[in-house]
Design a protein that fits this description.
By secondary structure, this protein is mainly alpha-helical. About 55% of the residues lie in helices and about 10% in strands.
């Protein structure tokens, strides 16, 4: 085998924002349909909160988890990022880097520390103004993370 080929293929490739979202969608979809209840419930709640799945209560959705499709997860991620649908988010992802994805910033950097979550970004901003921290918008909600 050509050593030049091996070294080129073994170099880590930079992951795009669209690839990162796709990977996260796969993980969340797996958790929602085949994971434990502890893994599935947070995803199910997010699906209902973003209206990615309509006209179902949490208990109904839990009983019918097999009906959840990847498109529902992608729409949920789009709405949480502030877009009205997956198609618009997918277009925007083409111009983004992974660093531009706030929910990944929270997951990777602040998972081990307590974060203050608020119903609106404005409430998170007010808290950060009074007490310090960095407010981040996630869909309609806001979170304050340490600076």
């Amino acid at each position: 085998m050509n050593s030049e080929f091996r070294s080129a293929s073994s170099a880590p490739a930079e992951i795009t924002a669209a690839q990162a979202i796709s990977k996260e969608a796969r993980r969340l979809h797996r958790a929602s349909v085949s994971g434990t209840l502890a893994d599935a419930l947070p995803v199910l709640r997010r699906l209902i909160a973003t209206a990615s799945i309509r006209e179902m209560t949490l208990p109904e959705l839990n009983r019918q988890r097999e009906t959840i499709r990847r498109k529902h997860i992608l729409r949920m991620l789009a709405v949480e990022a502030g877009f009205s649908n997956w198609e618009d988010y997918r277009k925007a992802l083409g111009e983004m880097r992974c660093d531009d994805l706030p929910h990944f910033e929270i997951a990777s950097k602040y998972a081990g520390s307590p974060n203050c979550w608020y119903s609106t970004f404005e409430e998170a901003q007010a808290h950060a103004d009074r007490h310090g921290g960095k407010p981040i918008r996630l869909g309609r909600q806001g979170v304050v993370v340490p600076e």
